[in-house]
Structures are given as C-alpha cells and as structure tokens.
Write a structure and sequence with these properties.
The complex is a heterodimer. By secondary structure, chain A is of the alpha/beta class. Chain A contains 14 helices and 8 strands. Classes of the chains: A alpha/beta, B alpha/beta. The interface between A and B is medium-sized, with 34 and 34 residues.
C-alpha cells in the first residue's frame, strides 16, 4: 500500500549529485574551477558515483537569459574529469538551448552521462539528442521537468516516448518542488507499468515544501532506482534534496547508496555552507515556488526583477505561475515585472 | 490582373496556412499542393480549397510544372529533403521559397533584406524560421544604429503550434536561427533559444530580443528605430506587437515582443505560423511583382554534378 512503508533493506540506489550543476543556479553561475575540483573530489572520495558538472542550465547555458558562468563547461570538465578516481561526470541538455554539437564536446571532454531534459509534455523534442548520446555510448536519461504539470498517465506516455528514443532511465523531475509523496508514487507507478523492466526510473526533487527526502523515499518504494540530490542542498529554489540527509535516512532504512555519510557531512559543513551566497533554504520566495508550482530557477531572477522594478518577488512568482510559464522562460520574469510595474504606475514610460 | 502560379510542398501546418495567405494575394495563385501520404488531412483540405494535389512528392509535380505554369514553389517539408526538391524545381526554372531550416539559399527577412535578394535575382531564398522572422528585424533595428557584439533571442511558442517535423529536428531550427541572427540581424555573434510551452489555453507566441552593444546604447535613436521596424513588420503581420521595452541596462538592450496570428488555419495564438507564412508570401509577392513587370527572368538551373 502507498501509505505503508515497505521494507527497503538492501535496495540499491544510485545517487547523482547536482551541487555542481543545479547548485550553479544558487551561485548565479559563479563557481570557480578550484571550488568545482574540491567539491567533486570530495564527493568522489565519499563514494558518490555520478556527479553533474555544468552551467546551471546545462549545455549551451551561457547566455543573457541564463547568465554567464565564470568558465565554459569545457573548462569545468577539463578541471574535474581527470581528478575523478571512481565517479563519472554527467551533464544536462535541454533541447532548444543545448545542441548535439555541445553534447559531442561534452563527450570529448570526458562526460559520460547526460540528463536530456524536456518539459513534461514535450518529450518529442528530444529524439535527436537521446539517440546521439547513445550513439556516443553515454548513459542517457530522459528527464521530464515540471512533472507535476502532467498527470501520471500522461507522464508515462512521455516517458515511454523517451525510452523509445533510447533513454535508459526516465526521471520524474519535480522542478518546482511542488509534489507530495502521493504525487510521486502515482507517477512512478504509472511509469513502471509501461516501461520495459530494464528501464530505470529516477526522481529529482527540490526542497521547496521540505519534501525532498520524503518524495525520494516514496519514489524508491515504488521502484525508482536513481535519485538526484545535492550535497548541502546546494541547488535552485530551496535547493535539491540534500544529499547527506538523504544518505543518512537511507542508512537508517538499510538502503544501499554506497556513500560515506560522515564524509558528506564534513563536505557540507566545511565546504558547501561557506560557499553559499545566500542560505539555500525554505524561505518566503522558495516556499512560494513550491506552493505555486513555479520553476525553482526563477527564484533569483525574480529577486533581481523585484529590486529593479519595485514589485515584490512573491507577486511576480505567483503571476508567473498563473501564466503557466515553464522552465527556460526566464525572460518573462523581467517582462512580467515590467508589465506589473506599469499597471501599478511605477514606470515612467510605457511601451505601447 | 495576371497572377504568378505557385506550388506548395508539404501539407502540414505551414503549408496549409500558406494556402490562405496566397489566396488573398493580388499577384500569387496557389495551384498545386504536394504531399507524400494519400491519406493526409492536409492534402484533402488543399483539394477542398481547389488546389491540384499529388501524394507522390515533388516527382509527382514535375510533369505538370510547365503545363500549369508554376513559377514559384514554397517548400514546407524538412531540411533533409529540401536540397533535392530545390534542385529538381530550379532545373525547370521554378523559384524556390524555402520554409525549412535547410538554408541553402540566401537568408531572407523581408523588412531587412528582401530588396537585395530581388536585385540579385536569386532562385532560392530561405525564410530561416518563425523565431528568426519574429526577432531578426529587432536585432537589425538596434544594429543599424550602432555596433552589436552579441544578440540573443528567446522564442516561446505554444505546444499546439509546433508540428512533428520541427520537434524532431530542433537542433536545425536552433542552428539556422542563430546564424541568421548574425548574418541578417547584423550582430557579430548570436544565439537563439526556443521554448515550447504547453499551457492551455495556448499562449501567444512571445519573443525576447537582447542586444549587447559595443558602447552605451543611444536610447532615443534605438527607441525610434525599434518603432519604425515594428511598423514595417506590421504591414504584413498586423499582430506583431511590442509588449515591453526597449529597456536599457548598461550596454544591454531588451525588447519584449508578442506575435498574434490572423487565425487563418490555426487560431491566433500561433503567431509563429503566421509570421513565417506571411514573410514567405511577402517575399514571393515581391518576386512575382518583378516577374510580372518583366524585370526578373527565371532561369533554369542545371543540377550541380
């Protein structure tokens, strides 16, 4: 039954750290190569098998829309990949932003796994990229973002499409940190019903409603075998599922992650927390994201627009949710703030 | 008045919407629709609208080109088959207006460079992409005032307005649009982003244009240039609207646009469809006018070996 914890003892789960990709959003893309190396080597040493490293928006992310990182993705990979003893490095590719040229470059620089990400209803924009990743011999994941905006049956259909393109894992991606455990359970179950037995299911959470751990455990209960988390919770919005907390809970439940809890705790305390420009936690704005179902990455953009145009960030975020803006539409944050400022008489000139 | 007879290849969203646009033209007359699937709804609709149809691809059209006096063809298929379509029709002296991202011909954005293509007597012009048609005029509106080192455009289109061909080949869309932002828009480097939004009811096409100028933007002249360009595009796409901006932030100029369609084939939210077909129709009209005036000689081009 959904509401009753199953015995998960000895279940194996592959954890995938997001701090050096999703965490880039929380750092306004300003992480140095030295910091990348320090965090990645410590994750590797703690037994984390898969580490995502790139601009927050993934391949092709360096832009006015998504911000320019301190270094190119290639510079980050060249810094990190040679230092890895066991861990593999992954990246993110959102079709429409990243392209196959950049995927080839990622592979050439040692990246061996990719989340190919689309909005949860637009899987059919990913066939080229998933197929190309497989052709390169990469581990390829179909990553269905804002998964709360598609019902379980619809999400399963989209996952099945990505499987048909060659994806080996289908992710339920709670980009808004909106989902509750039952939402996760229904979606994993629907995917499990249609996917081939060898296709894995993953869950990527955000902690905007404080549900990152609970949602991840719920996903595992229903058969998910890959979990995205972020050491120290460094990620967009209120952060991703905090990796060290997740590993502690798994240890208590007997779930096998292969990770060393104390090393992750030390990394969090000694390296990640001092790195944070703001405390990544559930606060007024990030809670608004979770409550209104808005893309977590919008958080800092809304804060900036709020300062520039004098509209409260919460009002902007709620309006973006009402207008059903999805991941990638960061330009609409300033646009929305401008329109709201004009309507409230805060702008001198009007466009019309 | 005499009209130039046209064929449309590809009875999808774009091809079908084109029929409506061409039927209203004083100088163009759509007479053929070419498809590959006898059961396709698009072919049936084209037949109902009075066009001759074939389900044998371009090869099914070739024997009729001369007898039916087809002089301009619109290709709304895919980048992969465009070259072959264009070679076959050029060989018969048919001018190609390419609506795929193939971009083997000159890149055309009517208010920016249509005159040049007409003067050059081109036999193949490429319409880039809906995102390109909606944004490049604004990049040009800034770059004609002062040098732009980098332009970035973000197009958001409704899920219902994007057909399977574009979806399956999103990279071609991105590459062609990015290169046209520079080549036609006039920036030294450029980037194009596309987002497909599934909101229901569908959202109207939105476009954001950012330009990074070499020096501090001349705000008054850029504002004036943007409004002039807006009026130029509105001549053939009445629903092309400035929502916000231009806004200035250091060397960055931001322009926020919206494109509502005429609602011919798809409802008005699909401004992306309209701006593409309207630009193609406007381009063809310019050529047709030249042909009718005897200033433009269509010439058969032998296929390259």
């Amino acid at each position: 039954m959904a509401n009753e914890l199953r015995n998960l003892k000895d279940r194996k789960v592959l954890v995938h750290d997001m701090a050096l990709r999703d965490g880039m959003h929380a750092k306004r893309e300003q992480i140095s190569t030295a910091q990348m190396i320090e965090v990645a080597t410590k994750l590797d040493d703690a037994g984390v098998p898969l580490i995502q490293v790139s601009h927050g928006a993934g391949l092709g992310g360096n832009s006015l829309q998504h911000g320019f990182a301190m270094h190119s993705n290639e510079e980050y990979w060249d810094a990190v990949v040679p230092k890895m003893k066991k861990a593999r490095i992954s990246c993110l590719l959102i079709p429409g932003l990243g392209t196959m040229k950049e995927l080839q470059s990622a592979y050439d620089h040692g990246v061996r796994s990719v989340h190919v990400a689309t909005h949860c209803t637009e899987a059919d924009t990913s066939p080229q990229h998933i197929a190309y990743a497989r052709k390169l011999g990469m581990d390829a994941t179909g990553f269905l973002m804002m998964a709360h905006l598609n019902d379980p049956k619809g999400l399963a259909t989209q996952g099945k499409l990505m499987e048909s393109y060659g994806a080996q894992t289908i992710y339920i991606t709670d980009s808004a940190g909106y989902m509750l455990p039952n939402d996760v359970i229904e979606r994993v179950r629907a995917l499990r019903e249609v996917l081939k037995p060898e296709t894995e299911i993953g869950f990527h959470g955000h902690h905007n409603l404080g549900m990152g751990i609970a949602n991840s455990i719920a996903a595992i209960e229903e058969g998910a075998s890959r979990i995205d988390a972020s050491v120290g919770g460094l990620g967009a919005g209120a952060g991703n599922t905090p990796l060290e907390v997740f590993v502690a809970v798994c240890d208590r439940m007997g779930i096998d992650t292969g990770c060393d809890l104390f090393k992750l705790m030390d990394l969090t305390q000694d390296v990640i927390f001092p790195m944070m420009d703001h405390i990544v936690r559930v606060d007024r704005s990030s809670l608004t994201l979770g409550f209104a179902g808005v893309y977590s990455t919008f958080l800092l953009h809304a804060d900036r627009a709020s300062k520039k145009y004098g509209i409260p960030a919460r009002d902007i975020l709620v309006e973006l949710g009402r207008k059903k803006m999805i991941g990638g539409q960061e330009d609409m944050i300033e646009d929305t703030a401008l329109t709201m400022a004009r309507e409230r008489g805060l702008l001198k000139t009007s466009a019309a | 008045m005499k009209k130039i007879k046209c064929a449309i290849i590809g009875p999808g969203n774009i091809g079908t919407d084109l029929i409506y646009k061409l039927k209203r033209s004083p100088v163009l007359d759509p007479v053929w629709m070419v498809g590959i699937d006898p059961k396709s709804e698009g072919l049936i609709r084209a037949r109902d609208m009075g066009l001759k149809t074939t389900d044998q691809g371009v090869d099914g059209l070739l024997p009729h080109v001369l007898a039916d006096e087809v002089q301009i063809a619109f290709d709304a298929t895919s980048a992969y088959v465009h070259k072959s379509n264009s070679d076959k029709l050029n060989a018969l002296g048919v001018l190609m207006v390419d609506l795929t991202p193939a971009a083997i011909g000159g890149l055309c954005v009517p208010p920016v460079n249509l005159d040049q293509h007409a003067k050059a007597q081109a036999m193949n012009v490429n319409m880039i992409s809906c995102a390109g048609q909606a944004t490049i005029p604004m990049v040009n509106a800034v770059s004609r005032i002062q040098p732009v080192s980098y332009a970035e455009i973000i197009a958001t289109v409704s899920s219902k307005s994007i057909g399977p061909g574009t979806r399956a080949n999103l990279d071609e869309f991105t590459y062609t649009t990015s290169s046209a932002v520079c080549a036609v828009g006039g920036s030294r480097t450029g980037k194009a982003l596309v987002i497909i939004n599934p909101a229901d009811p569908p959202m109207i096409m939105r476009n954001t244009i950012y330009c990074l100028c070499d020096d501090a933007p001349d705000q008054d002249r850029i504002r004036e240039s943007v409004h002039q360009m807006l009026a130029e595009v509105q001549k053939y796409v009445p629903g092309y609207r400035l929502v916000n901006g231009p806004v200035f932030d250091g060397k960055k100029v931001g322009v926020f646009m919206e494109v509502a369609g005429l609602g011919d084939y798809l409802p008005t939210y699909a401004g992306n469809l309209d701006i593409m077909t309207a630009a193609a129709a406007r381009t063809a009209e310019m050529f047709a006018t030249e042909i009718l005036a005897g200033r433009y000689q269509l010439k058969a081009i032998k296929e390259a070996a």
